[in-house]
Amino acid sequence: MASRNKPPRVSDALRKCRERFEAELKNLSDAEEVKTAGYICQAFPAPVAAGLGLRPVRVHCGASAGSESEGESIVRADACPMIKSLLGNVSTGSGLHAHVDLWVGLLSCDQMRRGLFALSDEFGREVHPIQLPATRTEESARYYASQVKRFVKDVEALHGLGFDVEKANKWQTASDGAADVLIKAVRSMEHSPLLIHAMFHLYFIANPFGLAEFFGELIDSAPRFEARGRVVVTGSPIEYEDALLYEALDEAGIAALPLNCTGLNALEPDETVEVPGSDEAVERMALEAFYRAPCARARPNAAVYTRLKSNVSATMAEGVILKCLKFCDLWHTENRRMAEALDVPVLVLDSVYAEGESGRLRSRIEAFIETIA
Hints:
By secondary structure, the protein is of the alpha/beta class.
């Protein structure tokens, strides 16, 4: 397959983004006076944790063959690779996982539920479980908001903290500003898929103050990505280190629009509904987070297909890549329906973090690219 070298300035931008990522991790390890709240699901409103004086981080890093293998000593081998990796990292005290003081556990699927219970039962970690309704109704949204408010009360009681509305609003304003810059960059489809991937993960763990300006500088320093084709990427979360798909697309000159929960779904709202209003800050933030772009678990999940079709059409994408973590039934069961619903070819990638997988996956990605570009 024909490939092309990344322009040096793109590599410089990617290097700066990765250096900032590592600096943020170091800041977290050094800031022992502030408790870190780790969460996984995009539906958790990070500003709520910030309003409690906690340092919110969305933990989607540390994926490796070693961490996944370590996790298999805690849960079954046929568990979600992301869950196994998470538990493996907690078990060994590796990376960001070592600095999470409490976990906000949105019960988004059975595998996530088991993983969060293992954090509590096996390791004695502080876990605050929150049921995330799959139904997309105002009643279920209000119920979710009530659980977030319960989380606030529980943390206040356990840690002697108080919720500060002004602090929460400032965090949200800074976070929204960074998100706006990132959304614009992603939707232009004029930037390296690897750079966009790195920017999303920096957004998930960074202190948001000044992040919009940093993103702006990165974008200004990176030349236009000369794409010879376009794809939409959807499916399971893609961890920071699990970058093989974006590496292959980058090398082939294929621009990518990430419509998954470690992509635009974490930033953009569900445009098919109107978010209910609230005068109470915690409830308002919870409702806004609940109504972010839906994933396959939503019931009904017709909005997932409406969003996919709309974006395939708007970007003139030649194909869709459904990146599934192995044993992720939520997304894998959608593959046949997706292939029938879309007017472009769909590549289904089932993956784990094992090192031996990279050759097989790369071959399939390259073969798919040859058919569409």
